[in-house]
Amino acid sequence: MAEERLIDDDKDKKYRFRINADGEEELIIDEGGEDEKPAQRGEDAQLSFDHAPDIDEEYAYGGEDPHYETHEEKEAVAALLEKARADAGEGNFSTALEYIAEAKDIAPEDGEVAALELAVYTRGLTDFSPVALEGAVPAAKRVAQFSSAEDKLALKEAGADALNSMICALQPQVEELKERNEQGKAERAVGFEADNKKSIIRLVALLIPFVVTLALTIYFSTVMYADTSGTNIILTIVFAALAFVFFIICVFAARALNITARRVRMNRDNSRTQVGRDYEAANSRLEALRTIYNAITE
Fold first, then answer.
1. For residues 249 and 227, what is the distance between their CA atoms, to the nearest angstrom?
2. In angstroms, how far is CA 266 from the centroid of its own chain?
3. Residue 123, Cα to own-chain centre: how many angstroms?
4. What's the rounded Cα separation, in Å, for the pair 187 and 162?
5. What is the DSSP letter of 125?
6. From CA 153, how far away is CA 157, in angstroms rounded?
7. What is the pLDDT of residue 47?
8. What is the band of 29 on the pLDDT scale with cuts at 50, 70, 90?
9. Tally of CB atoms within 10 A around 156
10. Please, which residues bridge with residue 28 across strands?
């Protein structure tokens, strides 16, 4: 369970700082209600895992295909894809992905392998959960680069409409979260930067007398026996004591500066607030969906 504490004695402010479960400090804004979470719902779409474009035998086995060095490699990939389609058709997606991984090791630039990998990760372009997107996005990038127009068309017919609907629904949520996040950071920055400026001025103001008293201490310590009356010894002790006092005060002032400077840095970090994390998650999801959509439609 996360440990929550106040950074300093500023208890009037509406901002709190806590140590989360990962041991990192985060900024908490005391506001009513919970931040809205971006919706994650798509329309059902279907994609046949039996899709396999016809292979031109003369092209495939003449050593002219840039994806394969030998006839055996081409046959091995074809066999693996057939097994992957069969397992995906039966709902054994994890096993299908294992076959696809083997095929990808043999032919990393094969567009048919990339298209099937994208289809399997997304369950025929119907599952766009965070777990599915983690593997689907790299596959989509390979689809955009290597897949044929026929493979892209099959993927587009299966899921482009659902993807477009999800993107259109998520876009205004991302914009709203971004606006709330930036507005919150701007409002907090006014107070945080003002406090930080005060801390800098306070520390500099304390450092000056510390340096002066330290310099006088050093000077009188070099001549404290030159005066037989003992005046220089007394002055050395007095200035040394003052330098020590100012040093202690400077330590506390430096600590206060560290706190205010850390607040300024934390305020710029989206991960330090709930609304910032919500924005990053929603924006990341939006970019992932766009990557897949662009890969199968362009």
1. 32
2. 15
3. 26
4. 38
5. T
6. 6
7. 56
8. low
9. 19
10. 16
Higher pLDDT, 298 or 203: 203
Token pair in block for residue 62? 């003449």
> Is the model's pLDDT at 208 over the cut of 70?
yes
How far is residue 143's CA from residue 2's CA, in Å, rounded to a whole number?
42
| Dist CA 17 CA 8 (whole Å) | 9
What is Dmax (Cα atoms) for the chain? 111
Pairing of strands 15-19, 25-29: antiparallel
- The two three-digit tokens of residue 218, written as one number: 């050093």
Tokens describing residue 116: 């099937």
Put residue 48 in one of left, alpha, beta given phi > 0 → left and psi -120 to 50 → alpha: beta
Rounded mean pLDDT, 221-248: 90
Q: How many helices (H) and strands (E) does the chain have?
A: 8, 3
**Residue 114 above 90 pLDDT?**
yes
What span, in angstroms and rounded, lies between the C-alpha atoms of 221 and 233?
7
With pLDDT > 90 as the criterion, what percentage of the chain qualifies?
A: 66
Which amino acid is it at 10? D
What DSSP string runs through 245-293? HHHHHHHHHHHHHHHHHHHHHHHH-GGGSHHHHHHHHHHHHHHHHHHHH
Which strands make up the sheet holding 25-29, listed edge to edge? 3-5, 15-19, 25-29
CA atoms of 46 and 162, how far apart (whole Å)? 10
Beta bridge partners of 19: 3, 25
| R_g (Cα) of the chain, nearest Å | 33
129: tokens are 């959960």
pTM of the model: 0.69
